[in-house]
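step=encode ok
step=design start
structure_in=
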């Protein structure tokens, strides 16, 4: 799912992640020397352009924060100061922040912690009713699964952002395609309207748009071939009047009329070539000297002779099957 500045879920998840990391650090590292100092070098809750003016002066720690309260929480981790202690009988848990203590009490010592889930964190959306262990998880659940999903399924509780997604989902309940070909005696179904439109054009055909031409084809590729053959635009050379189907071919041809051209010889057959990369490449694929090249397969019991290295590579794969 794409997260950005305008997505409330992104900010919510960042805040939750920061809290989880802070609690993990305070509970796990009893000795400040064991702290991975880089864990607190970023201030996740601050805005991207906000300066981090409050730096930690603990040796070896480069963490900096945009608010003094966050620096104070961070220093407690180095000092081992955990002023917020659980007063529940038999519980020795302690925390650097009051929020962590409050969350601990709600999770570990709630009167209904061992019984059925509390309705305080139950999703109120009609048809859902899911229970979650904290308000943060409930808020995340609402944003992720309900807000911004106006299209609800009438057969189950699922909701969708787009009507097309809903129509595709309904196929699971009724086995009816959301988009069906309207042409008589066809009835072919599709999940996407774009594919239906493409299919309908196969019934209507692709008409030639050249004036006076009444040809019609089932496929776009056939229409293109027709245009290239019947309505080809000729590109004529001004020197020799030779015509070419493509402008690029005419441009390749024009240098042949120059009085002076730089030439080179093929190293294999000594043929004289125009010294251009395209001419050398074209000749390389047709060079008679290379065509006489013989490559023998060295696979035991084979000995087949091939004329191209690429053919040899494909041939060797046939032995490995």
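sequence_out=
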């Amino acid at each position: 799912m794409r997260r950005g500045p305008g997505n409330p879920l992104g900010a919510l998840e960042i805040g939750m992640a920061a809290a989880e990391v802070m609690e993990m650090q305070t509970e796990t590292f009893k000795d400040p020397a064991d702290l991975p100092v880089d864990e607190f070098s970023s201030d996740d809750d601050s805005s991207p352009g906000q300066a981090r003016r409050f730096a930690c002066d603990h040796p070896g720690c480069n963490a900096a924060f945009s608010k003094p309260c966050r620096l104070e929480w961070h220093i407690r981790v180095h000092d081992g100061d955990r002023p917020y202690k659980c007063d529940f009988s038999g519980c020795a848990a302690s925390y650097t922040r009051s929020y962590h203590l409050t969350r601990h009490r709600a999770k570990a010592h709630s009167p209904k912690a061992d019984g059925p889930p509390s309705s305080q964190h139950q999703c109120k959306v009609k048809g859902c009713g899911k229970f979650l262990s904290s308000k943060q998880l409930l808020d995340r659940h609402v944003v992720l699964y309900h807000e911004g999903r106006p299209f609800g399924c009438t057969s189950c509780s699922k909701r969708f952002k787009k009507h097309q997604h809903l129509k595709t989902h309904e196929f699971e309940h009724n086995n009816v395609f959301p988009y069906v070909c309207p042409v008589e005696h066809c009835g072919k179904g599709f999940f996407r309207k774009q594919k239906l439109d493409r299919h309908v054009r196969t019934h209507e055909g692709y008409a030639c748009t050249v004036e006076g031409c009444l040809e019609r084809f089932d496929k776009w590729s056939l229409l293109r071939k027709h245009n290239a053959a019947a309505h080809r635009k000729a590109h004529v050379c001004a020197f020799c009047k030779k015509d070419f189907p493509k402008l690029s071919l005419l441009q390749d041809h024009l240098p042949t009329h120059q009085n002076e051209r730089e030439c080179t010889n093929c190293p294999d057959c000594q043929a004289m070539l125009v010294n251009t990369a395209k001419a050398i490449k074209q000749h390389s694929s047709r060079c008679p000297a290379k065509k006489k090249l013989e490559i023998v397969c060295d696979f035991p019991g084979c000995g087949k002779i091939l004329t191209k290295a690429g053919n040899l590579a494909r041939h060797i794969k046939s032995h490995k099957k």
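step=design ok
step=annotate ok -> Residues 1-49 have pLDDT under 50 and may be disordered.
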